[in-house]
C-alpha cells in the first residue's frame, strides 16, 4: 500500500476523515452490537486503512492482465451503515485498485437516518452520493446506481467490505473477454466480533435448496478433479449477490433487476436464473478476493417484515423462472402459497422477448447436483415396514433401487400420507430435500414405466432389503406420469 501522506493527498482529496468518524462513534456504555449487528467498537478502533493478508493462491500473483482494461463504476448501496465500515469499503477500493480502472464510486444512500453519512464522503475524489427520498431497498437502489453509472462495466459491492490485493483486474478481464459473463470474487470473512480477516475456501460455489435458501457448497468432485490450475474460474449455479461485476449493456439487455422485489433477498436467484437461462454464465474467480462482514441478523427493518419480503421476492423468482419446478419451491415453502407477490407479466414478457431457455435446461446443464439425502424418510419407511417393488438392476452406480411409479396427482396424495406417518421432522426434511433427475439424464438405465404394483424387472434381489438413503422425485418430461425412486 502507498504511504499515508500520498494517500491523503491523491486519493482522499480534502476529505476530513477524523471529523467524519469522530462525529458518529459508539457512546460509552452502549451495546456495540445493537445498531449494526457487528462489533462497532472494534470496527471504529481499526482505522480506515489497515493492512490485510493477501489470501489468494500464490500463483494468482503472476497472472497477467490486458493493459487496456476498461474502467468500472463501483456501485455501493447502503441503509444506516456504520461510518467506519462504509469508509473502509470505499478506501480499500481506492487503495487496492489501479486508479485507471475506477471511473467512479457511486454511493446510493437508501434513506439512512443521517444524510451526512453519505454526503460527506462525496468530498473524496471520484466518490458520488445519491440519496433516495424514501426507502427503496437494495434492488431498486442498485438499478438507480446502474442507470447513472458512466463506465461500461458495473461493479456491485456491499457496504461493509474490504477489497483485497488486485481484486478488480481478474474480474474486468473476464468480462472484457466475454461480456455475457457475470463474475464474483471469493468472499472472505471479516469477523463480526473482532474484525479479523479470514480466508474463505477456494473450493466453494453458490448453491441452494428448493426453498430458495442460498448456501455455499463444495464444487462437485468431478469438477474438482478436473481443476489442474487453481487460478481458473469456478462455474457457479448462483451467486451470493452482494458482490459481482457485470457488463452494463448486458445488465440492461437482460432487464437489470426485477424492481418489484423489495428491500433484500431473492434477487440473486432471479438474476442468476436469468443470466444462465438467457445466454450468459456465472463464475467465481479465485484470484479475486473481497472481505465481507457476514452477520447473523439484519440490523435494519423490513417495512413488511423480513420473512414476508423474502417470500414475496423468492416467489416472484419462482413464478417467472422456474416453470413446472416451481411446485417444488411451494412444497418446500408451503407458506409462500397464497402470499401476494405483485404482477409478474412484465418479467414474463421479458423472458419471452429474450427467448430464454426453460428451467429444465438449467437443471440439466447448470445444476444437476441439486438432490438430497432422505435420512428421516428412509428410516421411517423401514420403521413402518413399507413394502415397495424392487428393481435390483436399475442403475449400476446406485446399486439397488426402489422405484414407485405414479402420476403426479398420486404423488400429491402419497406425500401427505408419508408425512403423517413420519412426523414433523420428516416433513421438514422432505420439504427442503426434493431432488430431480430426468429420464434423459438416466439414459440407458431407464426402466420401462410400470405401475406401483408391477412385477420387478430381473430376478428377485438375493440380499435382504437395503437401507435406503436417497429419495428422488423424477418428473417425466414428455408425459404427466411421475415416479419415485428410492435407492440405498
Ligand atoms: Mn452484507
From TrEMBL:
Keyword GTP-binding listed: no
Q: Which reaction does it catalyse?
A: L-seryl-[protein] + UDP-N-acetyl-alpha-D-galactosamine = a 3-O-[N-acetyl-alpha-D-galactosaminyl]-L-seryl-[protein] + UDP + H(+); L-threonyl-[protein] + UDP-N-acetyl-alpha-D-galactosamine = a 3-O-[N-acetyl-alpha-D-galactosaminyl]-L-threonyl-[protein] + UDP + H(+)
Q: Name one GO cellular component term.
A: Golgi membrane
- Localization in the cell: Golgi apparatus membrane
Q: What is the protein's membrane topology class?
A: Single-pass type II membrane protein
Question: What are the TM regions of this chain, as residue ranges?
Answer: 402-422
Q: To which pathway does this protein belong? A: Protein modification; protein glycosylation
KW Nucleotide-binding (keyword) present:
no
Origin superkingdom: Eukaryota
Which Gene3D superfamilies does the annotation name? Answer: Spore Coat Polysaccharide Biosynthesis Protein SpsA, Chain A
- EC class of the enzyme, as a word: transferase
Q: Which UniProt keywords apply?
A: Disulfide bond, Glycosyltransferase, Golgi apparatus, Lectin, Manganese, Membrane, Metal-binding, Signal-anchor, Transferase, Transmembrane, Transmembrane helix
Instruction: Please provide the Gene Ontology terms (biological process) for this protein.
Output: protein O-linked glycosylation
Tell me the ranges covered by the Glycosyltransferase 2-like domain, including all copies: 73-251
InterPro entries documented for this protein? GalNAc-T, Glyco_trans_2-like, Nucleotide-diphossugar_trans
Question: Which family does this protein fall into?
Answer: Belongs to the glycosyltransferase 2 family. GalNAc-T subfamily.
What name does UniProt use for this protein?
A: polypeptide N-acetylgalactosaminyltransferase
- Organism of provenance: Sphaeramia orbicularis (orbiculate cardinalfish)
Write the lineage as a comma-separated list: Eukaryota, Metazoa, Chordata, Craniata, Vertebrata
Amino acid at each position: 500500500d502507498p504511504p499515508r501522506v500520498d494517500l491523503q493527498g491523491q486519493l482522499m482529496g480534502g476529505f476530513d476523515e477524523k471529523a467524519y468518524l469522530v462525529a458518529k462513534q459508539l457512546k460509552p456504555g452502549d451495546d456495540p452490537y445493537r445498531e449494526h449487528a457487528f462489533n462497532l467498537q472494534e470496527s471504529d478502533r481499526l482505522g480506515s486503512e489497515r493492512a490485510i493478508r493477501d489470501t489468494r493462491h500464490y500463483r494468482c500473483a503472476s497472472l497477467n492482465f490486458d493493459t487496456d482494461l476498461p474502467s468500472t463504476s463501483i456501485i455501493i448501496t447502503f441503509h444506516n451503515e456504520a461510518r467506519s465500515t462504509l469508509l473502509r469499503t470505499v478506501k480499500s477500493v481506492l487503495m487496492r485498485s489501479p486508479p485507471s480502472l475506477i471511473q467512479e464510486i457511486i454511493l446510493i444512500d437508501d434513506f439512512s437516518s443521517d444524510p451526512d453519512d453519505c454526503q460527506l464522503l462525496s468530498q473524496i475524489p471520484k466518490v458520488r452520493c445519491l440519496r433516495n427520498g424514501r426507502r427503496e431497498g437494495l434492488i431498486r437502489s442498485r438499478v438507480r446506481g446502474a442507470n447513472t453509472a458512466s463506465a461500461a462495466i458495473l461493479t456491485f459491492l456491499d457496504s461493509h467490505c474490504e477489497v483485497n490485493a488486485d481484486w478488480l483486474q481478474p474480474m474486468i478481464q473476464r468480462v472484457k473477454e466475454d461480456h455475457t459473463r457475470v463474475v464474483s470474487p471469493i468472499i472472505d470473512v471479516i469477523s463480526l466480533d473482532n474484525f479479523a480477516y479470514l480466508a474463505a475456501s477456494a473450493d466453494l460455489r453458490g448453491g441452494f435448496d428448493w426453498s430458495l435458501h442460498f448456501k455455499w457448497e463444495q464444487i462437485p468432485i468431478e469438477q474438482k478433479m478436473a481443476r489442474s490450475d487453481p487460478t481458473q474460474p469456478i462455474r457457479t449455479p448462483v451467486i451470493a449477490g452482494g458482490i459481482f461485476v457485470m457488463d452494463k449493456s448486458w445488465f440492461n439487455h437482460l432487464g437489470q433487476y426485477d424492481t418489484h422485489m423489495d428491500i433484500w433477498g431473492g434477487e440473486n436467484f432471479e438474476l442468476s436464473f436469468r443470466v444462465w437461462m438467457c445466454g450468459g454464465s456465472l463464475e467465481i474467480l479465485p484470484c479475486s478476493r473481497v472481505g465481507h462482514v457476514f452477520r447473523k441478523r439484519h440490523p435494519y427493518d423490513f417495512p413488511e417484515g423480513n420473512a414476508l419480503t423474502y417470500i414475496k421476492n423468492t416467489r416472484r423468482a419462482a413464478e417467472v423462472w422456474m416453470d413446472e419446478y416451481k411446485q417444488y419451491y411451494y412444497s418446500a415453502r408451503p407458506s409462500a402459497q397464497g402470499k401476494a407477490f405483485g404482477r409478474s407479466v412484465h418479467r414474463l414478457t421479458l423472458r419471452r422477448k429474450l427467448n430464454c431457455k426453460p428451467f429444465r435446461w438449467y437443471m440439466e446443464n447448470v445444476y444437476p447436483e441439486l438432490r438430497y439425502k432422505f435420512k428421516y424418510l428412509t428410516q421411517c419407511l423401514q420403521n413402518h415396514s413399507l413394502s415397495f417393488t424392487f428393481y435390483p438392476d436399475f442403475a449400476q452406480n446406485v446399486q439397488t433401487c426402489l422405484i414407485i411409479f405414479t402420476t403426479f396427482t398420486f404423488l400429491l396424495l402419497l406425500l401427505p400420507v408419508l408425512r403423517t406417518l413420519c412426523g414433523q421432522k420428516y416433513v421438514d426434511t422432505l420439504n427442503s430435500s426434493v431432488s430431480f433427475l430426468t429420464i434423459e439424464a438416466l439414459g440407458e438405465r431407464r426402466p420401462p414405466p410400470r405401475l406401483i404394483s408391477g412385477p420387478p424387472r430381473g430376478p428377485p434381489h438375493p440380499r435382504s432389503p437395503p437401507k435406503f438413503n436417497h429419495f428422488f422425485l423424477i418428473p417425466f418430461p414428455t408425459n404427466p406420469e411421475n415416479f419415485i425412486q428410492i435407492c440405498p
